[in-house]
Amino acid sequence: MTRRVLITAGASGIGVAMAKAFVETGAEVWVTDIDAQRLTELPTGVRGSVADTSDEAAMADMFNRIKAQWGGLDVLCANAGIKGPTAALEEMPLEGWRECLAVNLDGAFLAAKHAAPIMKAQRSGVMLFTSSTAGLYGFPYRAPYAAAKWAVIGLMKTVAMELGPHGIRANAIAPGSVNGPRIDRVFEAEAAAKGMTYEAVRDGYAAGTALGRLSDPEDIASMAVFLASDAARMVSGQVITVDGFTINPDPKV
Ligand SMILES: NC(=O)c1ccc[n+]([C@@H]2O[C@H](COP(=O)([O-])OP(=O)(O)OC[C@H]3O[C@@H](n4cnc5c(N)ncnc54)[C@H](O)[C@@H]3O)[C@@H](O)[C@H]2O)c1
Prior knowledge:
The chain contains eight helices and seven strands; from the N terminus they run βαβαβαβαβαβαααβ. It is α/β, with parallel strands linked by helices.
């Protein structure tokens, strides 16, 4: 049977790479995003709809549409995330903290909450959460992001325990720094906060991995395809890091 895959924040970056990778496996793919323009530029075979992942009414409406059009859902990729503010702790704005948690954590929770009854009814399904290596280490100047990505792992482990008896698996992927426009913005903000150059921050992160380089979105997407597949049928409750092995999570030079 053709697998039905939903990816939140799937209009760019890692999400769109996941969408392409799942289409290549023959799956039907639906992505959501807040960027209506980018949703008009999706790869062939991918359908899209606007939904803010932190808005429960919008998410409920979108899952109702999925139920009506697909009758079920095999794979959820709760992928939405924003970088949040980059600032010293004492300068960290509460509003930016809340916004970061709303998209990264509330968004993952709402996706899982509304996918759960669909998957429970069919007694099968896979939920994949995009965390980050920030969810495994601390992240100086990025307190809200690190806190949100740790929390996503707690959510994932709970989902895996609660829904395992219903035939549903849950795992998290923890990417390191992934090449693309988003990570350039992250490096620029971090360079400003730390008084470093963009190049020093970027090269520091690359040198801080055992493989000495940053990942590409396709590296994350291929792990998502594997974790969603029957080849991973006994893998649940795990955080799988795709980062070239971070050996220094906080480059200072
Ligand atoms: N890029 C990296 O280096 C990196 C590293 C680790 C983890 N991650 C995580 O991977 C995920 C994807 O990141 P990316 O690098 O592809 O980002 P990106 O900035 O390239 O794309 C993010 C997408 O999310 C959408 N979006 C933003 N807010 C949204 C909301 N409220 N509801 C729905 N969609 C929304 C944007 O419109 C955009 O299309 C995020 O959870 C991010 O935290 C990224």
